[in-house]
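Could you help me review a protein record that somebody else here produced? This is what I was given.
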Amino acid sequence: GYYKIDEKSLIKGKTHSQLLIIDRGFDPVSTVLHELTFQAMAYDLLPIENDTYKYKTDGKEKEAVLEEDDDLWVRIRHRHIAVVLEEIPKLMKEISSTKKATEGKTSLSALTQLMKKMPHFRKQITKQVVHLNLAEDCMNKFKPNIEKLCKTEQDLALGTDAEGQKVKDSMRVLLPVLLNKNHDNYDKIRAILLYIFSINGTTEENLDRLIQNVKIENESDMIRNWSYLGVPIVPPSQQSKPLRKDRSAEETFQLSRWTPFIKDILEDAIDNRLDSKEWPYCSQCPAVWNGSGAVSARQKPRASYLEDRKTGSKLIVFVIGGITYSEMRCAYEVSQAHKSCEVIIGSTHILTPKKLLDDIKMLNKSKDKLSFIKDE
């Protein structure tokens, strides 16, 4: 539905809000990269449907819903997997050492025993078991093949390697992925797309060669149909890349150097730095946004952080065509860093790379077969 802005409250200065509407083609890279923050990684690598995670513990099949009511999930979902793998065992140790029930062990079996001995800790421990299982399942998928793939993806996405050296030959970076029999077609297509995005489009001959060599003729529309989103795959002329914010000084993990475009946009909107040519109808941000000193987005997040912003401004961003978990994380981080401005992000639906590629493949099919925006 549509909502009319309360003009009286605007006049009184009660509401300082800005709405940005973006279409999905603005950042194709973030939709196909392997993201290594907990929620994004889990939804990409594991078969989580309707926020339900299935796992085995104590020899039994169990289900857990990943939801807002789970304080631990809300606290750790936007953190890097390496941090999560350190944090959960620490939480487990705190409980086990307090009760001296597991002699300091932090294995899943020890935790299961602890639950049997102390039923009043069951709920707290169950959450930790769920998230440790989830993190371990992610790592079991990550370690054999995805880890090496991530280095290639980051190099292609950024155009530089982990040492900051410029990638001179993107095809040379891509080839080992295409020749690796352990990577499935989805991962190879994601790598091909990152290669094409990195060079701002390719030639028809080069694209045909890539598709034939990797034997993905049946899935070729997963690549070609990006043109429907305004992303040039075979452009008629040389395209220029948008300038990115220099984040080389920021502390990151080597396999997580890419920052989604949306973070640049959110920060620029709050700082009144949006390019007026690209955002022609964008009104001036309220001055209150600029006077508030930014704080580190890497500080410990709190589930109740919205309570601090009862009278603050709102930056509302809506992405048409789907949003990634990494982009949702960026909105959260920017909200954390700018205490006087609440960032609210929304979209037609939430994307995972595989589902997006399946949807893009259908874009040139007849309407009755199209499920790009699914009815809820």
